């Protein structure tokens, strides 16, 4: 690699690090508001208790137990606030108004309906439509499935009346069934908003989140590697790999300095691609815009991600040899869009 191209590569890693670490800090510094909304006795408070893992929110089958918008922190992270709200049909008129006034502030709304009652009643549908007009970041939670039958048809009924663009998650706040699925759906919606890192840090199962991030980055890297890009090829791919590296370090609480990140990216890229031309480090194979280029770019990104994940989960230094072996394994695939099983 000649010195000019080497400097360009190093500068691109520096710039990507500064930009990506800024994005992560912005996410971690913002409050994350998740509002639980629905009619009285829909199981909002009991769901908060299941998500958090202990009884922090008061529960009562009688209307009016929740009379204010009460925040509960998840996993001791003050920035994550699960907001318990008064029932939308609370007989005390002021209580639902508090909920409605709060809707626009929430990052995500969990809209509850009762599988053991009149599922997605006319009054619920009307309230749902009002809420969706002000905030489209909604997950519909079909609660109390432990006391109902034919859940699949109930889910389809809700989708037909609420709109197919909204995900419906059947759960039981009594038994805890599908609470992990609900957390996963929350994370997916936050990813679309670019606010997923803080919530991901709160989850016990970090491995599943890491896999999703790594596989998604692998596919994106393949698209970059397979498509001719005007100008410098290094920028989007380097930003992707540096961003993945920093997100994994944040997820596993393994602080990474700029020097460590730069050394990791440059050394492993050089070893994987070989001591060849700069374009091979960025595009990995001669001839940008080829399926082969996409496969190699994807393979290196996957190897980098899974190598880091393995090191963090086993509390050991990141091993460049493991990354290289993973790279050789993934490169045997015929399609860079094929996700590895890890």
* Strand order in the largest sheet: 2-3-1-4-5-6
Shape field: elongated
Structural class: alpha/beta
Oligomeric state = single chain
Helical amount: 40-55%
CATH class of the largest domain: Alpha Beta
Q: Strand fraction band? A: 5-15%
CATH superfamily of the largest domain: P-loop containing nucleotide triphosphate hydrolases
CATH architecture of the largest domain: 3-Layer(aba) Sandwich
Number of domains: 2
Number of helices: 13
Q: Mind telling me the C-alpha Rg?
A: 23 Å
- Poorly predicted runs of 5 or more residues: 275-289
**Largest β sheet strand count, sense and barrel closure:** 6 strands, mixed
- CATH-defined topology of the largest domain: Rossmann fold
Number of strands: 6
Report, as a whole number of angstroms, the end-to-end distance: 33 Å
Keywords:
DUF697; transmembrane; elongated; six-stranded mixed β-sheet; 13 helices; alpha/beta; transmembrane helix
Polypeptide structure, described:
There is one protein chain. The protein has a six-stranded mixed beta sheet, sandwiched between helices. It contains 13 helices and six strands. Helix 12 packs antiparallel against helix 13 (about 320-330). It has two domains: about 5-25 and about 205-330, no CATH class; about 30-195, Rossmann fold (3-Layer(aba) Sandwich), CATH 3.40.50.300. Strand 5, helix 5 and strand 6 (about 165-170) form a beta-alpha-beta unit. Helix content is about 55%, strand content about 10%. It has about 350 residues and is an alpha/beta fold. The two termini are about 35 Å apart. The chain has helices at about 5-30, 45-50, 95-100, 120-135, 150-160, 180-195, 195-200, 205-225, 235-250, 260-275, 280, 290-315, 320-330, and strands at about 30-40, 70-75, 75-85, 110-115, 140-145, 165-170.
